[in-house]
Amino acid sequence: MASLNEAWELFKQGVGSVLRQWTALQLAVDNNWGGGNSQQKALAMEAELVEMFRTKKQVYRDEVEDYLNAYLDDHFGTYAEDDRRIAVVLLDMFAKCGAMDFTLVRNTLAQEQSRRAKPLRSVPAEGADDPDDVTTNIAQGVAAGGMDAMDEADSDGDSDGDGGEDEQPQQPAAAAAKAAPAPRMVDPDGWETVTKKKGKGRG
């Protein structure tokens, strides 16, 4: 059975893989919307997200979603309409790693490897599904590895709250039991809209 440290390492790998497959973020990095250090900013985003899960007593979907939205805006001058779906994937991945279930992480990593092996292609038109988008595939069960909780309808009972800081690293298993309920991940259009705002990303 995997140790707690191994669970954390796999979770960190999963977070990185999700972000590397997030179209909105990768467009910002590839086009240097955050300036010459756009790649470093993406890595900093990954590290801050992992730290959020490590130190918070309880992490809420809205908290992760707001962080993703604010980071894209502050550092890349852009936004994405699917930051909610990314937040749901990360919360579910954290819960599963806490339960020593690494199916979602491994499938996400395998999906990334599969995408790298494919030749470059054009970006889908707005409103069209991207067959390689991580959130689209997970929502359709391609990379979910048993994410049955994401088939539940999203009610108006969204969790919110700040969650207190904890001086000791938070164990995934403890936080997993408190994870916010996962909403339905399939948006009406199945694709995020990425818009570049005027001005350069801030350092």
UniProtKB/TrEMBL annotation:
Residues 169-183 have a biased composition (Low complexity). One of its GO terms (biological process) is rRNA processing. It comes from the Eukaryota. Keywords: rRNA processing. InterPro entries: Pre-rRNA_process_TSR2. It holds the Pfam family WGG. Residues 111-203 are annotated as: Disordered. Residues 149-168 have a biased composition (Acidic residues). Belongs to the TSR2 family. This is Pre-rRNA-processing protein TSR2-domain-containing protein. It comes from Tribonema minus. The lineage of its organism: Eukaryota, Sar, Stramenopiles, Ochrophyta, PX clade.
